[in-house]
Design goal:
Blueprint: H1 5-21, H2 26-40, H3 48-52, H4 55-66, H5 78-97, H6 123-131, H7 138-153, H8 157-162, E1 168-169, E2 174-178, E3 184-188, H9 191-206, H10 226-237, H11 249-261, H12 266-273, H13 278-281, H14 283-299
Antiparallel strand pairs: 1-2, 2-3
Helix pairs in contact: 1-2, 2-5, 4-5, 7-9, 7-11, 11-14
Length: 303
């Protein structure tokens, strides 16, 4: 649902801010804009900025999500309510930064949410993916290089899609990525990933394909879309069976968890993942503890 008039202008400016300045992924931008559009649609004849700065409007919007006043006719989950609150808070902060309002209105309390541990791939599953993968075509080599880089670096989907050949330092074993908020960081690229990237490049050259600026390209030489990358990863992960996760972020989760299990500190992993807050990284300690509890249960004489 799109917001009319002045609200539509606000939406267009906010969308540009999320994309150009915050460097959010297309999916995140889509979710944020959908939340804000639904919020503004409740303004009726009220002026949009006056409506959103009224604390009661956001409180009522959140309450409506807890009921059945949603496009689907079902109440939102705690996770979706938290995202809705984050979308609206981001929109209000942007109104302050862009000097459309003087101060940040008070936000309603965030809903409680149970901790959901990310599903990771075991080391055995990682070995099954890569050790038996012998690329047959340049596209197959490209897809293997993509998955090797995901697991080697812990990069986000949007970061890897945006990577270019100039960002890769093969001699030093680093890849420069641009994360959320346009923050750049260097992520490691190990020998296996570098070998996979080199094989991909060699196959492209032998096929007579031009080397474009984007690191990973489709048949037309243009950068792959996030959806195409997701599909390539899903096809390979589905071979592990229905219980395995089938999305690129599983490789990022696995990267972080395996590092912690091997002795890396939380600060190390926070830096590698590009997390602003250490609290965001701490979920991986819970994943590691779950793994260790499972090992003890299976191997300890009185487990």
């Amino acid at each position: 649902m799109s917001a009319p008039g002045a609200a539509a202008d606000l939406m267009a400016d906010f969308s540009a801010y999320l994309t150009d300045q915050r460097n959010y992924s297309p999916l995140t931008v889509k979710h944020y804009l959908r939340d804000i559009s639904q919020w503004l649609a409740r303004a009726g004849t009220r002026e949009p900025i006056a409506f959103v700065t009224d604390p009661e409007s956001l409180r009522e919007f959140q309450a409506a999500g807890s009921r059945r006043e949603t496009p689907s006719g079902r109440p939102l989950s705690a996770r979706s309510l938290m995202r809705r609150r984050a979308s609206c808070a981001s929109f209000l902060r942007w109104l302050v930064r862009s000097k459309r309002i003087d101060e940040m209105p008070r936000l309603p309390r965030s809903p409680k949410q149970g901790r959901t541990l990310p599903r990771i791939l075991s080391r055995t599953e990682i070995e099954r993916i890569f050790e038996t993968w012998i690329p047959r075509t340049w596209k197959d080599a490209r897809d293997k290089a993509i998955m090797e880089l995901f697991y080697a670096s812990g990069a986000r989907l949007a970061e890897l899609v945006a990577a270019r050949w100039a960002d890769l330092d093969e001699r030093q074993g680093w890849l420069r990525v641009t994360g959320k908020g346009n923050r750049e960081r260097l992520v490691p690229v190990g020998r296996s990933a570098l070998k996979a990237v080199d094989d991909y490049r060699g196959r492209m050259e032998r096929a007579g394909l031009p080397m474009a600026e984007p690191l990973f390209v489709g048949s037309g030489g243009k950068a792959m879309s996030p959806r195409t990358v997701q599909r390539a990863v899903r096809v390979r992960l589905e071979r592990l069976g229905p219980s395995a996760p089938h999305h690129p972020h599983a490789l990022r989760h696995s990267f972080a968890t395996h590092l912690l299990e091997a002795g890396a500190t939380l600060r190390d992993v926070q830096e590698l993942l590009g997390h602003r807050s250490l609290a965001t990284t701490q979920i991986y300690t819970h994943v590691s503890l779950q793994h260790l509890k499972k090992v003890v249960a299976q191997a300890h004489p009185r487990g």
